[in-house]
Amino acid sequence: MLDPATRTSRLRRFRFGAGGEGNKDEGGARNFIRLAQHAEDLGYDTFAVPDHLGNQVGPLAALGALSQATSSIRLATSVLANGFRHPAILAKEATTIDVLSRGRLELGIGAGWLKDEFRQAGIDFGTPGERIRRLDEALTVLDGLLRGETVDFAGEFYRISGLQGSPRPRQGPRPPIAVGGGGPRMLALAARHADIISVATRSTPDGKLRLSDMTIESTLERVDRIREVAGERFDEIELNWTIAAVVPTDDRVAAAELALKALDSGYPPTIERDAELTVDDLLASPYLAFGTVKEIAEHIREVRRRTTMSYVGVFPTQMDAFAPVIPLLREE
Fold this sequence. Notes:
Layout: E1 15-19, H1 28-42, E2 46-49, H2 59-69, E3 74-77, E4 80-81, H3 87-100, E5 105-110, H4 115-121, H5 128-146, E6 150-154, E7 159-164, E8 177-181, H6 184-193, E9 196-199, E10 209-210, H7 216-230, E11 238-243, E12 245-248, H8 252-264, E13 271-272, H9 279-284, E14 288-291, H10 293-307, E15 311-314, H11 319-322, H12 326-329
Parallel strand pairs: 1-2, 1-15, 2-3, 3-5, 4-5, 5-8, 8-9, 9-11, 10-13, 11-15, 12-14
Antiparallel strand pairs: 6-7
């Protein structure tokens, strides 16, 4: 792992992302548009929609609606499961959204990770290696079609013959592509293709997040993997991460102590407790934010200083709690 003092990459300005699923907990599909409009009013730069077959709206149709219901907030997928759609079809939908939104699309795509959804839908999941190779090919195809180019491609999974991308996107040369990953192979793939990389924690086969990956040290290792593969292109890549929990408090140490006790008791069940962490580990984690508004803002500055990550995301339930931090960092 590189020492922070040896990192010479420039620091990008902060950007802030919110999101929603349109599920029952959020008020359903009818409230989905209001949620995105609320995020726009709060000053978020981006509103993202995930891609699952369960209790949520369809991401591409939803972004089409948001392209007309919002005016300035950028619209993103976070992230599409590549195995659900052929890249030629996805390119058509994506450029259409970019045109309708007047150039506000950020296209996030990943290899797909929730095996049960593929099984339930009767879609081949494949091995981890197959999913990564398939995504590699899809990203190559998408890069050309999203630019409006004529694409010929013959690979292991896709064959494209003289297909021209249309409509031409509003953004040039194409909408930015975001790829998320936590493992070394996915991070390397993202480093070769993506404009935006979401530096994620790895997950277990049953979909739990690995606690060990939430430390600042583990995060630095993942960023260094991206830097190693991207080479000179590293400074062109925007790095994103999503804060799992925003905890406003006047006593951040006490809040972290309570969080450790909750982890000891098995809460939240979405986290795999594969490491013994300290209070200091939790307070330094990029994926947790404890403290007053000013303390959280300073924590995020420190994360950016150490990692160069600058694009901060929060979950729908954290959107209002985090919003007061945005004005403190907006011009930085």
